[in-house]
Fold 8-amino-7-oxononanoate synthase.
Amino acid sequence: MDLIASIDRKLDQLASQSLTRRRRVAETRCAPRQVVDGRPLLAFCSNDYLGLAAHPRVIEALRAGAELYGAGSGASHLVSGHSAAHAQFEERVAQFVSPHLVEARALYLCTGYMANLAVLTALGSEPDAMIFSEALNHASLIDGARLAKAGVTVYPHGDLDTLACQLTASSASTRIVVTDSVFSMDGDLAPLPGLLELCERHGAWLVVDDAHGFGVLGAHGRGALEHFALRSPHLVYIGTLGKAAGVGGAFVAAHASVIELMIQRARPYIYTTAAPPALAHALLASLDIIGGEEGAALRDRLSALVAQLDHELRLERWQRPASQTPIQPIIIGSNDEALRAAAALHEQGLWVPAIRPPTVAPGTARLRVTLSAAHTHEDVAQLAAALNKLERT
Ligand SMILES: *Cc1c(COP(=O)(O)O)cnc(C)c1O
């Protein structure tokens, strides 16, 4: 009984700090208009930036993939779970991002979380390697760095000068700089051109987690590397596929030797059952849409919605850090006030999540608005009006 009581004390402590999280049950597909816990809501919280999670072609490809390959893969990739669908997707996505890499090859993994563990443990497998990790990196990169045998140095957010000093001072055998491209709670971009220049100068790898950029940034949706027109054999690129691609999983694209090392050594790739092949089959359709004319039109539409929100919001007390991406945070400060704001929006049928520590720094609790090409201009106008009014009450 004492064991249970000690857990309950921890839970009570979270509750007393307004840090208890609860899950809402979505009863309909991922789309702006959903039924959640029995109630219709207009949602501004998914990372389905292009609306592909409910796209008829992607859904049909998922169905066709299940017919072709069955429901599950049955084993890990190195045993017998590697299907033609996985292989095709890897080839196609490697080609898609190849303008930005040298001798590009790609590897499909079950989740972005696992892809980040896989990359950092494979590249940082030696104790005398060093990982230079951006302060606002996603939890999965932090966990990957913890799991790697390499040492870890954190550099301040966006601070190229401090990183340059740290690289100069380091005598590590292998140096790995790792960063989110689009910061998931702020929506700002990492200074990737400066980071790549530093990495080239110091003979370091640059690992870029483009979870929120792939499909969204760049004229063809190739992501942050296309946005900044970067190319290098020392880039290791991670694109996640549950966000703009609308399905699930992730890929790592890099020089063929990096990918071969991961197949041989990366435990989060090797020791897990391969994702259902139907997902990879559905992703072939997503990739087609992202890279084609439809994808370009969806990105134009998304940009117009972001500009509209920016234009219509009139906030005085709450802070809005500059963000050109569909991630539009509204920083409120206290956990309580952020929760009250989210609850008040919910009363009006709007679903905007309140994000609290430890996901963000203490004192920066916020509403995290995300926009999707599936939203309408009326949806955005409704949200802006509700936020403007709420801030004044
Ligand atoms: C969502 C996210 C991940 C994890 O990807 P999943 O496929 O959801 O596991 C990794 N990095 C960043 C920056 C993310 O936002």
